Predict the structure.
Amino acid sequence: MITERQEELAALHALGLLEGAERAAFEAELAGNAELAALVDSLAGASANLSFAARQVPPPAGLKERVLAACASVPQSAKAEAALAPVVGFPLRRLIPWAAAAILAVTAGWLASRNLALQSENDFLRTERQLAQVAYLRAQAELKERSIVAEGLINDLGRQLRAQDDLTRLKVTALVALAGGTPEARAIAVWDPGREAGLLTVEKLPAIDENQDYQLWVVDPAYPNPVDGGVFKPGADGRVALTFKGNKPIKSVAAFAISLEKKGGVPKAEGPIVLLGKVPPI
Amino acid sequence: MLLVSDSTFGYYGLGPPPPREVGFERMSEPRIVPPPDDERHALQRRLLAALASGDKTALADLYDQLSGPLHSLAYRMLGDPAEAQDLLQDIFVQVWRTAATYEPARGSVFAWMATLTRNRAIDRIRMRKRRADALANAAPDLQPSATVAEVDAGDSLWAREKAAAVRTALAALAPDQQQAIELAYFSGLTQQEIAARLNEPLGTIKARIRRGLLRLKDRLPSGL
């Protein structure tokens, strides 16, 4: 019983269309199947006759002489080129060892090619993995870099916020003249409650005698009298800028005042207040 | 008197076969009638045996008998006159060198030499392909076969009769089967390439080849 698949393989074999492992496997099958071998023989015969389907084109007249001359120059060999193309009806049993060898050779070849293919695939995968690792490391580095940048930004932002917080914490007060002798004098006092220190800038403050000083007072409601902030003497242009601290701990500042006192200052204001400024509540 | 077409018939081995006389043809126009295929095959085997022993006359006679169809096959596959002639020369040189290795059990002399020719032609076609030549131009696989009624100038009577029988059998196939088989035999294409050329699934092509070749075998006269 010959199956359709065997018929198909027989037809392909007869036309020389089977190759490689497929051919070796079929020829091995042929070796053990006389009915199939007979079919292959008959199909091979039909196939060989197909050459007559070609339009008959006789060879040129001079070719025969060329062929005969070429043959005359070639020695005959009894066993040369033993591997002639199989046509039909050869004894199949003699082919069994050859078929087995062919299958082994084809299998070995296939395994070798498969091995090469797998090696190639493995190399490819390894390369892909390395590339993926490089990409991962690069991404990690970028992320780290961005983290650093982000951290810097956050720190900057924090610093800005802290600075803004500091600024909001600062108490800024403009001091204005109270006495008639200093109508153009201006003073700005900036107080940092956290540090309990301040900055005073004064303009157009009238010059005073050598035995006199201006004295700054910090009014803290926690004390019954203003707290001494230090003495100073303006320059020839009437300007002065100085930092100051109270001679007592300052909890909160309600106002600043500048009085004209004797040289070196006094513990409790005695002279006239020349400039006064209340600290705004916020 | 009826004569066989080949004067060398009977030259080798078995002696001349008795000339066949057909009485009612004696009165008609004398015409050459080829011997039956079995006798033709036997003659070719004797020629090859003589050739194997170094007989150059046998070589010339074998050339006279087989060069036409073998050259036609080479020309059909290669599509180039010069290459077909080179191939034919190669085949005869190979046969000259290796005639002693021919085994009659492997088929007729013609079938053997046709297979050698086809295999060499396929080698050349694939070499062209490897050289990146356009296969479509190299293998005239779709070149239409000659029709049954076509008379080929210069051909031998034997070849003409065989050609007529083969073409008749081919013409009886479904067109798609005929096309697939002619491509398979003459083009040197692989199964996959044939499928691609015909834009059909591989399974369809295999089925067409199977059905077509089985039908061709059944339709070819026995002993052809």
